[in-house]
Amino acid sequence: MLNVHNLSVSFGGEYLFEEISFRLNGGDRVGLIGKNGAGKSTLLKLLTKDMPLDTGTIAMEKGIRIGFLRQDIDFEQGRTVLEESYQAFEEIKDLESQLEHINHQLAERTDYESEGYNQLMIDLGDITHRYEIIGGYNYQGETEKILLG
After folding, report:
1. What residues are paired with 58 via a beta bridge?
2. Residue ranges per domain, the chain?
3. pLDDT per residue as tens digits for the range 55-113
4. Are 22 and 4 in contact, with CB atoms under 8 Å apart?
5. What average pLDDT does range 7-19 have in this prediction?
6. How far apart are CA 110 and CA 45, in angstroms?
7. Contact 16, 42 (CB under 8 A)
8. How far apart are the first and last CA of the chain?
9. CA 131 vs CA 72, 85, 112, 117, 123: distances in Å
10. Of 3, 11, 4, 2, which is closest to residue 54 (Cα–Cα)?
């Protein structure tokens, strides 16, 4: 759950928004639209703690992810748009790295009955399950579909 209460932001004494409150529950997906200068990017920066609050509170359950494409992106030289888009999936990329590491360890071991080998198998199952839940097997195809329009 994400809970925003009495959030106010001002620049030079002028309020961009004043005393806004809202709640998002688990599983909610939200799009933020508005005219230029309405405060969309500012609100997202506040929610991601990239900008300090003037007043109000933002409470977030552990594990909540807020994803958005920043207006001021520093693209790495030589990356394609598709490669840059994949960078939004940091958690999936981290899990892929962990899975690769565990699979490499399992391939080199021969102590199949040991506690260490058993723990690696348990870790592999847990990480694979998390990877599936957050869309690890689908993110590349979904990203390509979005970029194609």
Report:
1. 4
2. 2-60, 81-148
3. 999 999 887 877 776 666 666 788 888 888 888 888 999 999 999 999 999 999 999 99
4. yes
5. 88
6. 49
7. yes
8. 31
9. 29, 18, 24, 21, 12
10. 11
